[in-house]
Amino acid sequence: MDAATYANAFQAYFALHAYSSYAEKMSKYMLNQFEFFGIPSPLRKQLTSRFIALHGLPATEQTDETVKLIWQMPQRELHYAIMEIASRKAYLADAGKINLYEFMIVNQSWWDTVDYIASNLVGAWLIKHKQLTGEVTERFMQSGNMWLQRTALLFQLKYRGNTDQELLFRFINDLSGSKEFFIRKAIGWALREFSKTNPGAVIDFTNNNELSPLSRREALKIILKNNKP
To answer: Most buried residue, 34, 104, 119, 185, by CB count within 10 Å?
Structure first.
């Protein structure tokens, strides 16, 4: 099955399970930026598994084309489903796959897809291609694109003890003056997640660096909760 046939079959399969009564609510939650079939998340995951059982995964050599075709379709559930498929270990081994992830970040951009891509695609890919971490993340930071910068802040969310603290703190300092809500929120989220592993480092950092009130509040949520009398 070629990429176009796969993508069209993918869309048609999900369309069979559209719920118009939910679609409007789901679109409204996303500020009416995207069209929805109205498929709840649990059902979407079931449909994705069933589709794979029927048609298999996109062929390795056709992954990029297939993902891009589906990514440009209007229904948001298709984006959720194909990015989950793209996170399969079989695809993460490809050293050039970062170009596809970057395409996904800068197209159809909003927090709901970018945050998943940051930790489950870019973050997981960089574990396998660690030598490219500096090159890729510096390019994201220098891009001027808010969503790529947010990705540079969040790609280590699941790294825990393997977090590159120096890199994280440097990127936060570079972006701490941003007025963008999604950057300020990401700074706080990244620090909050790191506080689960190294609360002392997060306390020291927040005490000695300028952060927006939003970033600081988010960063210290768990620490303050754990230290309540």
So the answer is: 104
Q: What is the CATH number of domain 1-86?
A: 1.25.10.90
Q: In sequence order, which residues have a C-beta less than 8 Å from that of residue 125 and are 6 or more positions away? A: 92, 97, 98, 101
Encoding tokens for residue 86? 């793209």
How do the domains of the chain map onto residue ranges? 1-86, 176-229
Q: Which amino acid is at 187?
A: I
**What are the CA-CA distances from residue 50 to residues 4, 14, 39, 56, 78 (Å)?**
19, 11, 15, 9, 14
Q: Count the residues in the chain.
A: 229
pLDDT of residue 229: 65
Fold of the CATH domain 176-229: 1.25.40
Give the span between the Cα atoms of 157 and 192, in whole angstroms: 10
- The confidence score (pLDDT) of residue 103 equals 98
Query: In whole angstroms, what is the distance from residue 168 CA to residue 144 CA?
Result: 18
Q: How buried is residue 37: exposed, middle or buried, by Cβ count under 10 Å (0-12/13-18/19+)?
A: buried
Residue 187: per-residue pLDDT = 98
Q: Which residue has the tokens 């003890």?
A: 161
Tens-digit pLDDT profile for residues 77-104: 999 999 999 999 889 999 999 999 999 9
Query: Low-confidence residues of the chain, pLDDT below 70?
Result: 229
- Same fold? 1-86, 176-229: no
| Residue position matching structure tokens 């789901």 | 26
Neighbours of 95 (CB within 10 A): 11
Whole-angstrom Cα distance, residue 172 to residue 178?
10
